[in-house]
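User: Hi! I'm working on a homework problem where we have to compare a predicted structure to a textbook description. Could you give me the structure for the chain below?
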Amino acid sequence: MHDVVIHLGHCNRTRGATGTSGIYQGERRSEQAFVKAVGYPLAEELQRLGIDGVTKLADESLPRCEVFVALHQDGSTSSSARGASVGYPSIGQSATLANLWKANYALQGWPSGFRGDNYTKALRNYYGFRRVHADEKFLVEHGFATNATDQAWMWGNLDKVIRSHVDTLTQWFGVNPTPLPPASQENNMGVRYEVFDDPIAKKAWAMWGPIDKPYVDVYSKYVAGGEIVPKGWYGVRDAVAAGTMIQVG
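Assistant: Happy to help. Predicted C-alpha cells:
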C-alpha cells in the first residue's frame, strides 16, 4: 500500500473532460500542464523524504493508499471568478487533512482566499473518490486558470504550490514538520488571529512555539489534561488517531 497517491486531474485525456486553461505571460497554459508541473516534483520530494508517493493519470487504475489527493485548477466563463477550494467525502479525517492544506497554502502567500469546501457537486462527488481505496481523500482546486491574478500566481509560484503540499503531507505523517508560525500574525487576507490562552496551549507553545489560530483550527485544540505529544512530534494523523487531539473551529 502506498502512503500517497497523487491524481493528476484530466491528464492524458484528449476528449471529454480535458480540463480548463488560461493565459500566463501571453501564452495559453492548460490545467493538465499545471498539475503535471506540481504533481511530478511533489512525488519526487515525498520519496526523498521517505514518504511513498506516486502519481497517477486521470483514468489509470488507482492503488490502495493512505492518502489520495487529486490536483486541479478551476475554471469559469467569468474572468472575475477566483479563489482556491477543496473537496472531500465524509470519511475519516479527510476534512481535517484538506483544511490543513488550506492553511499551508495561505502561509505560502496565496492571494485570492478560499471558496467554501465542497461548494460544487464535482468537488463533493469527485469520481476518483469512488475509484480508490484510501483512508483519507481530498481534491484541490488551486485557483482559477481563467482568472488572470490566480493564474499568474499559480504559474509564477510553482515552488510554493508544491511546498504547500509537501508541508501538508509531512505534517500529516510526522516527517520533517515545518515550524508553526508566530502567534497572532496577520495573514495575507488581512485577518488577524488570536491564540488560545489556556494551559494546554501553553504547553504546546513550549514545544512548537506560538500557535496561530489557522493552525489551531486545523491541528485541533488539545484535550485538557492529556499529553500534547507523548513521544515528540508524530504527525496530525497519529495525534488524531491516538485521541490526543479533537478538532475545533
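For your comparison, note the following. DSSP finds nine helices and nine strands in the chain. The first strand starts at residue 2 and ends at 8. Good luck with the assignment!
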